[in-house]
C-alpha cells in the first residue's frame, strides 16, 4: 500500500469543514512525524507530503548514498551497494528517496495514529467554535430548538454547533418546542470539561439593544445612540435614547409610525412593555421621564445621597410604582437614584389621616418600610388598597396584611 486515503481512513476529516486546509495538513504532518520518531528515533530525514484535495498522504525517506563501510548514521546515510538494489543508476553522493509504506508501521501504530488524529481534529473544531462565538458575543443568532430540558434548551445553529439557552436567560413567558427557530443574543462562551459551551440570552439588555438596532436604521447608522437599557424581562423595559441629529426625534424614530417599529420587538419579547425616553443630563428631568407613564407634580432632590422624593397626585401613585413595583425599580436603575414616592394632596380637602410612623409601636419597622416602598406612607393610603393589591405589590404575607389593616382600621374607628 503505497499511500493512504485519509478521508476514507480517518472519518473525522469529513466533519472538519470549518478547519482550514493548511492547519489540517500541519496536524496530519505532526501526527505522522510522531509515528516516525517512535519507529526510527528521528523524523529529520523524512518528508510527510499531504495532498489536501484528494486526502492522500505520502511519506518519503531521504538518505545520502555513501561508500560501502562508511555509513555512520543509518538514518541519514545508505551504503552504495544497498542503494543500487533500489535503483542501479545511483552514484555515491546522491540523495536516495524512498517511499515509506504506511503498513510498515504496523496495525497498532496506525490505529494509535488514527485516534491521535481524531483527538487533534476534535480539539481544532473546539478552538474554531470558541473563536467564532467569542467574536460574536453581543450579536443576535438564530438557532433551532433541538432538545428542551427543565433547566435549559439545547439549540443547533446553521452549522450544527450546539448552543445553550438556560432557563435563567429565558423570558418567563417563553415556551419553545423542538424544531422551532428562536432568536437570542450570544452572552458568553465557557469551557466545561475542556468543551466549549456557548450561552445565549433573551433576558439581557443587549438582546433588546440589538433588536432595536435591527428595527431602527438610525440606531444602526449611529444617528441615534442608546444611552442605557434596563429590563424586567417579560414585564417592562426602559430605553433611554439620544439623537446626534437635531432633525431626528429619537423617541419617534424608535417607536415608528403608529408603533410599527416597536411592535415587532414587543412581540419578540412576549409583550414586554417598552418605554422609550429621551436621555438628558438634567437629573430631575430624567427622573421625571423615567417614571413614565405617571405624571409628577413636585420633586425634592438630594444629589449627594443620590436620593429623590417624588410627589404625585393620588391617582398617579400606582402608575409610578407599577405592577409588582417594576416601574419604580427600573426608574431607579436607569437614573441611579433612590426614589421615594409620596402622595400630593394639595388642592384637595384635607382628610384626617395618620402617618404610618405613628404606628411604630404596633407595626414592625420593616413592614412600614415595605409599605413606603410602594408609596404608602399614611394609614389611609394603605387602607385605600385592597388586601389582594397589597399582597401582590409587597413582600408581605396575607396574615401580616390582615393584621396590619385591622390595626389601622381600629384607629379610625376610635375617631
UniProtKB/TrEMBL annotation:
SUPFAM superfamilies: Nucleic acid-binding proteins (SSF50249), Prokaryotic type KH domain (KH-domain type II) (SSF54814), Transcription factor NusA, N-terminal domain (SSF69705). It comes from the Bacteria. One of its GO terms (cellular component) is cytosol. One of its GO terms (biological process) is transcription antitermination. GO terms for molecular function: DNA-binding transcription factor activity; RNA binding. Keywords: Cytoplasm, RNA-binding, Transcription, Transcription antitermination, Transcription regulation, Transcription termination. InterPro entries: KH_dom-like_a/b, KH_NusA_2nd, KH_sf_prok-type, NA-bd_OB-fold, NusA_N_sf, S1_domain, TF_NusA, TF_NusA_bacterial. It is found in: Cytoplasm. SMART domains: S1. Residues 136-203 form the S1 motif domain. Belongs to the NusA family. Participates in both transcription termination and antitermination. Monomer. Binds directly to the core enzyme of the DNA-dependent RNA polymerase and to nascent RNA. This is Transcription termination/antitermination protein NusA. The lineage of its organism: Bacteria, Pseudomonadati, Bacteroidota, Chitinophagia, Chitinophagales.
Amino acid at each position: 500500500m503505497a499511500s493512504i486515503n485519509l478521508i476514507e481512513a480517518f472519518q473525522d476529516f469529513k466533519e472538519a469543514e470549518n478547519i482550514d486546509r493548511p492547519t489540517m495538513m500541519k496536524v496530519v504532518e505532526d501526527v505522522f512525524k510522531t509515528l516516525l520518531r517512535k519507529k526510527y528515533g528521528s523524523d529529520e530525514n523524512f518528508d510527510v507530503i499531504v495532498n489536501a484535495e484528494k486526502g492522500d498522504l505520502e511519506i518519503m525517506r531521504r538518505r545520502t548514498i555513501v561508500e560501502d563501510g562508511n555509513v555512520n548514521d543509518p538514518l541519514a546515510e545508505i551504503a552504495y551497494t544497498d542503494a543500487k538494489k533500489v535503483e542501479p543508476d545511483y552514484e555515491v553522493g546522491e540523495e536516495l528517496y524512498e517511499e515509506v509504506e504506511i503498513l510498515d508501521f504496523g496495525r497498532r501504530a496506525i490505529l494509535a495514529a488514527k485516534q491521535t488524529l481524531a483527538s487533534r481534529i476534535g480539539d481544532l473544531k473546539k478552538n474554531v467554535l470558541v473563536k467564532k462565538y467569542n467574536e460574536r458575543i453581543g450579536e443576535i443568532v438564530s438557532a433551532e430548538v433541538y432538545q428542551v430540558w427543565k433547566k435549559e434548551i439545547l439549540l443547533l445553529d446553521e452549522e450544527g454547533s450546539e448552543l445553550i439557552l438556560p432557563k435563567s436567560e429565558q423570558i418567563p413567558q417563553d415556551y419553545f418546542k423542538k424544531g422551532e427557530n428562536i432568536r437570542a443574543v450570544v452572552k458568553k462562551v465557557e469551557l466545561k470539561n475542556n468543551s466549549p459551551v456557548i450561552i445565549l440570552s433573551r433576558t439581557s439588555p443587549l438582546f433588546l439593544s440589538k433588536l432595536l438596532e435591527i428595527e431602527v436604521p438610525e440606531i444602526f447608522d449611529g444617528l441615534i445612540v442608546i444611552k442605557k437599557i434596563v429590563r424586567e424581562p417579560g414585564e417592562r423595559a426602559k430605553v433611554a435614547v439620544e439623537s446626534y441629529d437635531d432633525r431626528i426625534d429619537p423617541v419617534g424614530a424608535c417607536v415608528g409610525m403608529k408603533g410599527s417599529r416597536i411592535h415587532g420587538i414587543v412581540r419578540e419579547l412576549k409583550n414586554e412593555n417598552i418605554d422609550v425616553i429621551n436621555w438628558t443630563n438634567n437629573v430631575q428631568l430624567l427622573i421625571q421621564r423615567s417614571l413614565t407613564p405617571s405624571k409628577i407634580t413636585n420633586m425634592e432632590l438630594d444629589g449627594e445621597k443620590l436620593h429623590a422624593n417624588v410627589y404625585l397626585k393620588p391617582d398617579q401613585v400606582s402608575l409610578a410604582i407599577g405592577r409588582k413595583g417594576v416601574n419604580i425599580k427600573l426608574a431607579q436603575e436607569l437614573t441611579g437614584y433612590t426614589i421615594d414616592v409620596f402622595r400630593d394632596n394639595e388642592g384637595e380637602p384635607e382628610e384626617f389621616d395618620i402617618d404610618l410612623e405613628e404606628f411604630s409601636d404596633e407595626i414592625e419597622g420593616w413592614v412600614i418600610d415595605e409599605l413606603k416602598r410602594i408609596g404608602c406612607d399614611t394609614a389611609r393610603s394603605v387602607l385605600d388598597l385592597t388586601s389582594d393589591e397589597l399582597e401582590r405589590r409587597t413582600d408581605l404575607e396575607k396574615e401580616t396584611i390582615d393584621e396590619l389593616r385591622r390595626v389601622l382600621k381600629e384607629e379610625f374607628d376610635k375617631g
